[in-house]
Design a protein that fits this description.
elongated; seven-stranded mixed β-sheet
C-alpha cells in the first residue's frame, strides 16, 4: 500500500511538471563551463566601423551579455580580452558558467542568448529575447547555433564627419519616421531547428513598453576627422529625406537637410563622408503672413487628425476667425515633411455661381513654433462667411505638394443620426460629404444642387467638385462641374501611384488605356483593398472629418442591402431627384443628381455612393482589384435600377456618406 502511495505521488508530480507555459523552463542543471565562439551573421555587420569599408572586428574590452538559466534571468557579462579574439577580429571565444534556458517547447533549439553592448542591458527576465535600454548604438543580438553565437546587426547606420563648433546633433526623418525607442528595444533571435528566426522590434514579456522616438540626440565630435554615427534600429528608410541639426550649448547653429528618399536596412552602413560643406546657417521659422494672427487661434484637430475639417458657416462668430491643424498626413500622426509654403488650391460654392477668390477661405499659411516642433497649417476665414468647400495644400521648397486638406464650410450645421441604415450604434451624417445643406424630400421642387456634395475616386483622400446643375433630358445627361476659383480639375486616360496622387490632388486619373480601350479602370496603379479601411480601421486616406469614416459594407442594413427597394422607408421621386431609405424619423434623404464618369458628370436621376469595400475581381484583361462596392441607383428610361455589387470602377467619382467611427 505504501509503495502504491509513493507511485501515485510520483505520477502526480510528473503531471504537474508537464503543465508549463511557453516560457516555463526545465528543472535547473548543475552549472558547468560552456565555451562559445562569437561570429557575425553578415560580413558588413559593424561593431567598430572602419570608415573605408565598414568591416567588422571584435576589440579588446568589448562587453557581451550572455543570458540563459532556469528562469531566463540568469546572465553573465563577458569582457573580451586580447587573447579571446582571432587575428582578423572576425571571431572571439568566450566561456560562461550559467545554465541553459531550456524550454519545454522542443521546436526551439537555442538555449543561450547574447547581446552587445552588454552595458545597455536592463534588469529583468530576458527569456529567449534580447532587450536594450538605449538605441543609438551599434546593437547586435545572437543565439547559440551548435556552440557558436551568431550575431545579427539590429541597426542601419549613417556615418559622417563634420567640422565646427558643435557638441550635439539631432537627427530626424522629414516625414516623422520612427528612428528609435525611448524606453526599451526588444528583439527575438533564435534557432527554430529549421533555421534562424530574427524578429526585429519584438516587444513582449517584461519589456512591452517601447515608446517610439522621432529623433535621435547624440554627442558629436566636430574635428573633421572623427567618424560619428547615427544608429537607427527601425530603419525602414526616409521617404522625404532627413534633417540633422547641429547644436552648441542647446542652441541650433547649423542644419543639414536632404529631400531625396533614403533607403536604409538592418546591417546597412551608409557613410556620408565629410558634410561640413553642406551645412546651412540655422534660421528660426516664423509665421509668414502677419495678417493671420496665430495667437488665440482655434485648433481643429483637438479630437484627432483628418483629411477634412469642418468650419460651420452658419455660425456668425466664425467670420475672420483663425483656425489651425497639424500638418500631418491625414488620419495619422506622421508629419508631411518640411513645409516651405501653403496655398489655397481651389474654392467652390457647389453650384454654377462664379466664385470669388478667398471668399470661402480668406488666407492660408503655416507655422512652426520651434525647430523641434511639428508644422501647423493656419487659415483665416473671411469677414463675410460664404458657404462652400476649399482645398488647402502644403508645399516643399520645390513647389511640390506634400499633402492637401479639405476645409468644409457648410451653410447649415452638420448633424448625424442612426437612420437605421448602418451598423447599430453608428450614426450617419445627415448629408453627403461636402454638401452645404441637407437634401429635402420635396414633392414640389427639385433637390438643392448644393446638397449633392463632392465626388471622390475610391480610395483617394481628395475631393472633386460636384455638379453645377441638374440635367433633366436623358439625351443630354452630362452636367458641368461646379465652378471653382483657383486650380481647375484636369483629367487623362492614365493611372497614378498613391504618391503621385498626393502630389496631384486636382488630377482625375481615368485608368489604364491601351489606345482607346480601357483595360483597367482603376485610377491607381498600386491596387489594394484597404485604402479606405475595409479592415475596420480608419485609413490614412479616409476623406471624412474627425470622428467619422467611410462606411463599411453591411448588407444587413438598408443602404447596402441587395434590394434597397424592399427596405423600410424606401421611397424615390424621379421628378425631383431624391430617394430616401431607413427606419429613422425622418428617413435619410439622398440626392440623386449624378456621379463623375470618365471626368464628366452624369445626371438625370442617378447617383452612386461609395463604401469601404473593394472586391477581388479579375477582368477580361487580367487586372485585379479594379472595382469597388457602392450603392448605385439610376433610371433606365422609366425603369428604376439599383446595384449593390462590385462592378463599379474605382476611377468613377462618387458621393460619400460618412458614418461615426
Amino acid at each position: 500500500m505504501k509503495k502504491m502511495y509513493i507511485l501515485a505521488l510520483a505520477a502526480l508530480a510528473m503531471a504537474f511538471s508537464c503543465q508549463k507555459t511557453e516560457n516555463s523552463p526545465e528543472p535547473a542543471s548543475e552549472p558547468v563551463v560552456r565555451t562559445f565562439t562569437c561570429t557575425f551573421a553578415q560580413p558588413d555587420t559593424k561593431l567598430a566601423i572602419d570608415d573605408a569599408n565598414g568591416k567588422t572586428t571584435w576589440e579588446e574590452g568589448d562587453k557581451i551579455m550572455i543570458h540563459g538559466g532556469t528562469n531566463g534571468a540568469d546572465r553573465q557579462l563577458v569582457t573580451l580580452g586580447a587573447g579571446d579574439i582571432s587575428a582578423d577580429g572576425k571571431s572571439a571565444t568566450i566561456s560562461v558558467t550559467i545554465d541553459p534556458y531550456d524550454r519545454s517547447d522542443a521546436s526551439v533549439k537555442s538555449k543561450y542568448y547574447a547581446q552587445y553592448p552588454g552595458s545597455l542591458v536592463p534588469a529583468g527576465n530576458m527569456y529567449y529575447e534580447c532587450c536594450f535600454n538605449a538605441t543609438n548604438d551599434k546593437l547586435m543580438a545572437a543565439c547559440d547555433v551548435d556552440g557558436a553565437f551568431v550575431f545579427y546587426n539590429l541597426c542601419g547606420i549613417i556615418s559622417y564627419k563634420v567640422s565646427g563648433d558643435f557638441d550635439q546633433v539631432v537627427f530626424s526623418g522629414n516625414n516623422d519616421e520612427t528612428v528609435g525607442y525611448s524606453d526599451y528595444y526588444q528583439v527575438r533571435v533564435r534557432n527554430n531547428n529549421s533555421g534562424m528566426e530574427v524578429n526585429y522590434h519584438k516587444p513582449g514579456n517584461g519589456f512591452s513598453t517601447n515608446t517610439a522616438a522621432k529623433s535621435i540626440t547624440a554627442a558629436v565630435v566636430a574635428d573633421g576627422t572623427t567618424v560619428n554615427t547615427i544608429c537607427i534600429p527601425n530603419p525602414a528608410g526616409f521617404t522625404g529625406g532627413f534633417t540633422m541639426k547641429f547644436l552648441k550649448g542647446g542652441a541650433i547653429v547649423k542644419t543639414l537637410s536632404t529631400t531625396s528618399p533614403v533607403s536604409l536596412t538592418h546591417g546597412q552602413y551608409r557613410p556620408m563622408g565629410n558634410v561640413t560643406a553642406y551645412l546651412k546657417d540655422y534660421v528660426a521659422p516664423s509665421t509668414h503672413d502677419s495678417s493671420i494672427p496665430v495667437a488665440g487661434a482655434t485648433a481643429l484637430d483637438g479630437s484627432g487628425n483628418a483629411n477634412c475639417y469642418i468650419v460651420d458657416g452658419s455660425v456668425a462668430a466664425n467670420a475672420e476667425k483663425v483656425f489651425t491643424f497639424k500638418a500631418y498626413k491625414g488620419n495619422s500622426s506622421v508629419g508631411v515633411g518640411t513645409v516651405a509654403s501653403a496655398v489655397i488650391l481651389w474654392e467652390t460654392y457647389n453650384n454654377a455661381e462664379t466664385v470669388t477668390a478667398n471668399s470661402v477661405i480668406a488666407a492660408v499659411d503655416f507655422e512652426k513654433k520651434s525647430e523641434n516642433d511639428f508644422y501647423t497649417m493656419v487659415f483665416k476665414m473671411p469677414a463675410t462667411l460664404h458657404a462652400g468647400n476649399a482645398v488647402l495644400a502644403a508645399k516643399d521648397e520645390g513647389g511640390n505638394i506634400l499633402w492637401s486638406w479639405h476645409i468644409w464650410v457648410p451653410q447649415t450645421t452638420v448633424t448625424a443620426a442612426d437612420y437605421g441604415i448602418h451598423t447599430s450604434g453608428k450614426n450617419v451624417m445627415d448629408r453627403n460629404l461636402g454638401a452645404l445643406v441637407v437634401a429635402e424630400a420635396s414633392t414640389s421642387s427639385d433637390i438643392d444642387i448644393t446638397s449633392v456634395g463632392l465626388y471622390y475616386q475610391w480610395g483617394r483622400k481628395d475631393p472633386f467638385p460636384g455638379p453645377r446643375e441638374i440635367k433633366k433630358d436623358p439625351s443630354d445627361l452630362y452636367a458641368s462641374p461646379a465652378k471653382v476659383a483657383g486650380t481647375a480639375m484636369t483629367k487623362d486616360k492614365v493611372q497614378l501611384t498613391v504618391e503621385s496622387s498626393i502630389k496631384s490632388p486636382t488630377f482625375f486619373a481615368r485608368g489604364y488605356y491601351d489606345g482607346d480601350t480601357q483595360k483597367n479602370p482603376d485610377w491607381c496603379s498600386e491596387a489594394g483593398p484597404n485604402y479606405w479601411g475595409d479592415d475596420g480601421v480608419k485609413s490614412i486616406y479616409d476623406p471624412c472629418p474627425v470622428g467619422y469614416r467611410v462606411p463599411l459594407r453591411d448588407k444587413t442594413k438598408a443602404l447596402w442591402a441587395d434590394d434597397i427597394t424592399a427596405q423600410t422607408g424606401w421611397e424615390y421621386n424621379a421628378d425631383h431627384y431624391w430617394f430616401k431609405v431607413g427606419s429613422g424619423s425622418p428617413a435619410a434623404v439622398f440626392p440623386a443628381v449624378g456621379y463623375m464618369d470618365g471626368g464628366s458628370i452624369k445626371t438625370v436621376f442617378r447617383t452612386t455612393i461609395w463604401n469601404a469595400h473593394s472586391n477581388d475581381y479579375t477582368n477580361e484583361y487580367g487586372f485585379n482589384h479594379y472595382a469597388a462596392y457602392s450603392r448605385r441607383i439610376y433610371l433606365d428610361g422609366s425603369t428604376l435600377k439599383h446595384k449593390n455589387n462590385g462592378d463599379v470602377s474605382k476611377s468613377i467619382g462618387c458621393s460619400v456618406r460618412c458614418v461615426a467611427e
